[in-house]
Write a structure and sequence with these properties.
By secondary structure, the protein is of the alpha/beta class. It has one domain: Rossmann fold (3-Layer(aba) Sandwich), CATH 3.40.50. The chain is built from 7 helices and 7 strands. A 7-stranded parallel sheet has the order 3-2-1-4-5-6-7, with helices on both faces. Strand 5, helix 4 and strand 6 form a beta-alpha-beta unit. Helix 1 (19-30) crosses helix 7 (216-227), helix 2 runs parallel beside helix 3 (98-124) and helix 3 (98-124) packs parallel to helix 4. It is globular, with a radius of gyration of 18 Å. The N and C termini lie far apart (51 Å). The relative contact order is 0.15. The structure holds NADPH dihydro-nicotinamide-adenine-dinucleotide phosphate (NDP). NADPH dihydro-nicotinamide-adenine-dinucleotide phosphate (NDP) is lined by residues 14-15, 17-21, 39-41, 56-59, 84-87, 107, 111, 134, 136, 179, 181-182, 184-187.
Length: 254
């Protein structure tokens, strides 16, 4: 039987039951990896073969170390880490409380730091690894009313480069995917639940050169490439996947 590209690899995906995380877990499992989907809540559907759920709060150091102990005991190694857990708070800085600010930094930035920190020893065991963080196009340019979110994604971009510098010499590659609008619960929450949402969504589609938003599967395709051997020289980069949205001149935007 032909060997699958990610056979014998172990992948840990945080936010693994979220919109993008679910698609990533399925894709990596399809490519042969054993996948641990780690998230705050177990999925309400049965997971496909090769995907195992583990509860995780990325903001809590003891929750992260408990997960790593379990992975070390059950799978023995980590080859691929995807830091996809994230939250969004839709506010200007004046409306953002200090609690809001600390909460979003705890998940998006501290979570990426903690999970990566404790995954590294398990990654070193195989002499190679790929860490894929989640930035955003909002780490480069800003949407209105997403001030703290934009700040967290800028921090993830900087952290990605720093981690790539530190761990490249041990053959651990670190990249960030920076999505544009991807159709998930997070995007639905961004659109809200009042007013003419369909017209707003159509306007957003129309402003994209590709005339649609991205899907979680679009993102999973790039994760699969960055995780695998074809990307063996790719590290320290911020991979924007936005249907051409940010390639346009400013006047073309909404
Ligand atoms: P979702 O809200 O669908 O999924 C995020 C997942 O992260 C949820 O399952 C959520 O659990 C989980 N999570 C939140 N807090 C924690 C925590 N403390 N510990 C563990 N898990 C946690 O979002 P997406 O799938 O859309 O987003 C995935 C990543 O992509 C995020 O980093 C996001 O910022 C980024 N991104 C998304 C874009 C989009 O348009 N969708 C655009 C640009 C970037 P719960 O449901 O319980 O909160």
């Amino acid at each position: 039987m032909t060997k699958l590209p990610l056979e014998n690899r172990v992948a840990l995906v945080t936010g693994g039951t979220g919109g993008i995380g679910t698609a990533i877990c399925k894709r990596l499992a399809k490519e042969g990896a054993v996948v641990i989907a780690a998230d705050r809540h177990a999925p309400n559907v049965e997971l496909p073969e090769g995907i195992f759920f583990h509860d995780l709060d990325v903001t809590q150091e003891d929750s992260v170390t408990k997960l790593m102990d379990s992975v070390e005991y059950n799978q023995g190694q980590i080859d691929i880490l995807v830091n996809a857990a994230g939250i969004e708070i839709e506010k200007t800085i004046e409306d953002t409380s200090l609690d809001d600010w600390n909460r979003i930094f705890a998940v998006n930035v501290t979570g990426t730091f903690l999970v990566s920190k404790y995954a590294l020893p398990l990654m070193r065991k195989t002499g190679a690894g790929s860490i894929i963080n989640f930035g955003s196009y909002d780490g480069f340019i800003a949407d209105p009313q997403l001030a703290a979110y934009c700040a967290t994604k800028g921090a993830v971009h900087a952290l990605t480069r720093a981690m790539a510098c530190d761990h490249g010499p041990e053959n651990i590659r670190v990249n960030a995917i920076c999505p544009g609008y991807i159709d998930t619960p997070m995007l639905q929450s961004f659109f809200g639940d009042s007013g003419d949402i369909e017209s707003l969504q159509q306007a957003v589609r129309d402003v994209h050169p590709m005339r649609r938003y991205g899907t979680p599967d679009d993102i999973a395709g790039l994760v699969n490439w960055l995780a695998g051997d074809e990307a063996r020289y790719a590290s320290g980069q911020l991979w924007v996947l936005d249907g051409g949205l940010t390639a346009q001149v400013q006047q073309m935007r909404l």
